[in-house]
Amino acid sequence: MASKTKLFKNVIINSLIFVYLSIVGFSLFNYRSHCVFTSPSTLLRLPHLDKSDNGKCRVDLDKLELIKVDIFTAPEFDFILEKNHHVKKGGVSKPVGCSALQKVAIIVPYRDRLHHLKILLNRLHAMLVKQLIEYRIFVIEQSGLDKFNRGKLMNIGYLEALKFGDFDCFVFHDADLLPENDQNLYMCDQHARHLSSAIDEMRYHVMYYNYAGGVIAINRENYQRINGYSNFYWGWGNEDDDLSARIQETGLLITRPPESIGRFKMVRHAKLSRAEHGNELFFGWRGRWPEDGLNDIVGMNYTVLHFSDEPLFTNITVNIGSRPKTMPNHDSTQESLFWFLKFYYP
Ligand SMILES: *[C@@H]1O[C@H](CO)[C@@H](O)[C@H](O)[C@H]1NC(C)=O
Ligand SMILES: *[C@@H]1O[C@H](CO)[C@@H](O)[C@H](O)[C@H]1NC(C)=O
């Protein structure tokens, strides 16, 4: 009797070990195939940058460090300007005495978060000057009362930014996230660089390995290739997963700075309302992808209501129309449950 119990126990234990190892093994395999951690120093050594080495800025990463970021006090614009004399009208800056490795457009989708915006601008201008980056900060404001469409605002930001300059790199940036480490270079590599790899709200880890929300840097060529974000997600959630799927299916990796460098603090706020049918939309992402994005004439219909060069940022206020009454139907292209589970695997 006793030995039977013991045998039973062994079988249970061995099975548990087997299941555990399988999960770990699957997770490693799954993760490694799409996502890699790379040091910011790789951004300074990109092959295409090396040709024209003379006069290029080289930032000394060892001199940059983790900063104590205050997420509670929002300084006034005058104060921020006073502390950041390098910033020109429109939220523009470039290094003096050397030429920047990349020209970067920072795209911040926005509505009604002035408090967050002040905290963000204060932090970004102070950090980017140390990184010797040439940049312009675009705040893309959605007018009207319809649900927030983050993806479409990103696409608009991308297109509008190109009217201002020949940007190499686009950093798509939530207004409520503050980079903590100056070493987290706001630059692009040849993949898609998920800069916010460790957010305090997520206990400084990536929530699931395919997570691409928060702050992500994508170069111009790759953004065109993936057809930008989807324009279909009205309300919070899933548009970042859709982007992540586009990145991977294009054969690009998601690269991330190590968690000690990709640290961000989130400014607390009431959650936006979630996208209706967000998950269902995401299930059918593949069918929409070829026509839903930058190249979608109807989906990308918008008008610029207001434009101004503010002292610390470029204000582009847009009417993006309203949410279609009916959901697109792509039943034939739904992903399998396995694909879905694999996608959200932690
Ligand atoms: C874009 O939106 C405007 C205003 O809502 C509308 O009149 C126009 O027909 C739309 N254009 C396209 C291509 O959908
Ligand atoms: C941008 O400009 C619009 C129109 O003048 C204004 O209503 C809005 O408050 C401005 N946005 C910011 C962030 O200042």
From TrEMBL:
Primary location class: membrane
Stretches that traverse the bilayer: 12-31
Membrane topology (UniProt): Single-pass type II membrane protein
Domain Galactosyltransferase C-terminal: start-end pairs: 193-269
Segments forming domain Galactosyltransferase N-terminal: 67-189
Associated pathway: Protein modification; protein glycosylation
Highest taxon of source: Eukaryota
Keyword Membrane: yes
Described function: Catalyses the transfer of galactose onto proteins or lipids.
Protein name in the entry: Beta-1,4-galactosyltransferase
Organism: Patella caerulea (Rayed Mediterranean limpet)
